[in-house]
Amino acid sequence: MIDFVEVKKSTSSDKETLQKAIDHSVETGLYTVVVLGGEWNVDETILIPDNVRLIFDGAKVNYMGKGFFITNNNSVTTYKNVIAAEQKGITISGKNGAEIIGGTVFLNNLKNCSIEDLTFSDVDYGVALTSTIGVKLKRLKFNGCVNGVILGTGASDIIINDISGSVEKEFISINNGAFVEYKKLYHPAAVKNVIVRNIIAEAQVLVNVIGVAEKLVFSEINGTASELIFSIKSGKHILIDNVNASGTVINEDYPKGQVIIDKKDLTR
């Protein structure tokens, strides 16, 4: 019994082939698309509906367009009038060396989703989340990217586990002011309830926290920071545990009384 839509390269454009397979999976009630091998060249955004699982099996995808490579439907239809977590259940994953080159996976306005087992190369940000609740990022790699993951306005209940790689600037950025210019928000929502663990990375800054953020936990942070392991300009209720990275641990102007490293209040 076949319980997924299998997609291979065809005479149609690669974007059209992928989008048709995704739409067909919804129409047939299968909701799972497996992209089999090969090198795919895409110059337009792929849209993902509710509850779809998109699996890249050994495929390498070159994104040559502008904006985002993969995003959920409502990130387009409600971009400037966001109701948090309106969509749900999307999974984007890879296996057998799947790689996304030059394209960002951007999820907005949804809940209970995951991105896992993918390699991102040569992109500004590999993964970007805004107005999301209950998203899991796991077993991701970033090679030659400018930045790794950004959690923007309204991202909450996020678990980031077992990600690695080398980026130019920030490996993980938590910034509730990110992307607000697209949404025309006057009061960006806080980033909150975030757990980050088991990180091995090289970057200027391994973790950057700026803007309104609260209840952040960082554990098992490894690698090398050329400037700072943690740059924390604001936020509250931040716990850092088991840091084994090389570099200056934290900026001098961190928020006093709000950051604890290895069970020590840094204000003491």
Topology:
Elements: E1 5-7, H1 14-27, E2 32-36, E3 39-42, E4 46-48, E5 53-57, E6 60-63, E7 70-72, H2 73-77, E8 87-88, E9 91-95, E10 99-101, E11 105-121, E12 125-145, E13 147-151, E14 156-167, E15 170-175, H3 180-183, E16 191-210, E17 213-232, E18 236-243, E19 246-250, E20 259-261, E21 264-265
Parallel strand pairs: 1-2, 2-5, 3-6, 4-7, 5-9, 6-10, 7-11, 8-11, 9-11, 10-11, 11-12, 12-13, 12-14, 13-15, 14-16, 15-16, 16-17, 17-18, 17-19, 18-20
Antiparallel strand pairs: 20-21
Describe this structure in words.
This protein has helices spanning 14-27, 73-77, 180-183; strands spanning 5-7, 32-36, 39-42, 46-48, 53-57, 60-63, 70-72, 87-88, 91-95, 99-101, 105-121, 125-145, 147-151, 156-167, 170-175, 191-210, 213-232, 236-243, 246-250, 259-261, 264-265. The protein is mostly beta strands. The chain has one domain (53-70, 78-265): 3 Solenoid (Pectate Lyase C-like), CATH 2.160.20. The chain has a 5-stranded parallel β-barrel with strand order 12-13-15-16-14. The longest helix has 14 residues, at 14-27. The protein starts with a strand and ends with a strand.
Quick gist of this model?
The protein is built from 3 helices and 21 strands. By secondary structure, it is mostly beta strands. It has one domain (53-70, 78-265): Pectate Lyase C-like (3 Solenoid).
Q: List the strand order in the largest sheet.
A: 12-13-15-16-14
| SS elements, strand count | 21
Q: What is the radius of gyration?
A: 19 Å
Low-confidence stretches: 77-84
CATH 2nd-level architecture: 3 Solenoid
Quaternary structure of the protein = single chain
SS strand fraction = over 45%
The main sheet comes to: 5 strands, parallel, barrel
